[in-house]
Amino acid sequence: MALLQHAKRTAMRAAAGGVLWTLRHLPLGFRAERTLLRRSWQSGSADMLDAYLVSGYQNPRVNVQSILVRHALLARLLGPAAAAAMEEEIDWAIELNEVLRRRAAELGVKMAAYRDPVKHAAVRRVDAAIAERDHEFTDRWRQRLDRLETDPISVIEFACGSANDYRAFAAAGLGPHLDYLGIDLSEKNIANARRRHPEARWEVGDILDLSHDDRAFDYVVASDIFEHLSIEAMEHALAEAMRLAQDGVILTFFNMADAPDHEVRRVRAYHWNTLSRERIEAQLEAAGFGARLTLPIARWLRTVHGYGHSYNQHAWTIIAERVPRIIDVLPHRLEHPHGSDRGRDRGTYVRSDERGETDEH
Ligand SMILES: C[S@@+](CC[C@H](N)C(=O)[O-])C[C@H]1O[C@@H](n2cnc3c(N)ncnc32)[C@H](O)[C@@H]1O
Fold it and tell me: Is the distance from the beta carbon of residue 34 to the nearest atom of ligand 1 less than 6 Å?
């Protein structure tokens, strides 16, 4: 009975609200969804896209989730010998994030990812506070990797933007150790990526329509994309990531919650969903990706690293493998290894009740 009433209400609203209502509330076929996604992500100039999502807290050299993606690859290349430097790098990133936070407060700048040139310029003024230091760890890793001789890891990155993360992969010396393919729906992004890094492979492509063979890559990397897809498309893209991955998937989420269900939200022509950690992990588990490192970033930084000002309270990173290879090497865990609250011990533990800034992705 309730279902019948719901269907009636739905039909009445659709008739009253017309196309806009329909777009917001009815599932779209993947082809229609791709058209809308493409329109959203192609809007704006190539220069704007080149600068988008790589400044402020999104700067991949100091963004903790970008660092975790690099740590996953470094763990595979360097093994346990890299663990101590990884922990150091997280503390270093926290220090630089805090410099950004304080400088933004001094200048009265609201830190987010902006397409608007004036707002973006304000974030760049804040960035000047760390410009002298943000390369410190990429330099360190590069020195180590330059001497290393190993077989490259094959990686496909879904929704790579304008080589947003690859720029820091290259700065850290990962380039020669990766057989890398970046895919993005936007031609402008791919043209930017090719210009910046002609040594890597870049393709305009749709992660909902991939023709690569099963297990064609060692790892699939995907950052800040799944929340922007309808649930059907997101589940399809995640299944594709697992189909393509011989070993594992390295996933960065900007909007996830410890909730039983996904929460759908349409913003303009695409989605801004809150994904359920439980449901994503269930899908990974069901497909045989039983070895996982799941980190709620803000909680992890607060309880293990004593930092209470993580810029995004809804960020999660999940690294999932068929058999544990990199997650056993990574030193990062939600529980502090010595069972104590390290931050509290050193007197810098901050309990933050503020909500993180949500970015305009
Ligand atoms: C929020 S940005 C993330 C970019 C990059 N991964 C990062 O973390 O900085 C989302 C990206 O997804 C791309 N994208 C959206 N839908 C896609 C699809 N169906 N297939 C491939 N790329 C897509 C957009 O062009 C855009 O570059």
Answer: yes
- CA 151 to chain centroid: 26
Q: Is 65:223 a contact under the CB 8 Å cutoff? A: yes
- Hey, where are the domains in the chain? 26-345
26-345 CATH choice from 3.40.50.150, 3.90.980.10, 3.40.50.261, 3.30.70.890: 3.40.50.150
Q: What is the pLDDT of residue 142?
A: 98
This prediction has a pTM of 0.88
CA distance linking residue 325 with residue 285, whole number of Å: 16
Q: Give the up-direction half-sphere exposure of residue 181: CA atoms within 13 A in the CB hemisphere.
A: 15
For ligand 1, say whether the CB of 127 is within 6 Å of any of its atoms: no
Work out which ligand 1 atom sits closest to the CA atom of 233.
19
Residue 245 has pLDDT above 50, yes or no: yes
* Ligand 1 contact, 208 CB (< 6 A): yes
Q: Which atom of ligand 1 is nearest to the CA of 41?
A: 25
Question: Within 13 Å and on the Cβ side, how many CA atoms surround 81?
Answer: 7
Question: pLDDT per residue over 262-312, tens digit each?
Answer: 999 998 788 999 999 999 999 999 999 999 999 999 999 999 999 999 999
The CB of 184 under 6 Å from ligand 1? The reply is yes
Verify whether ligand 1 is closer than 6 Å to residue 238 (CB atom): no
C-alpha 16 – ligand 1 centre gap (Å): 33
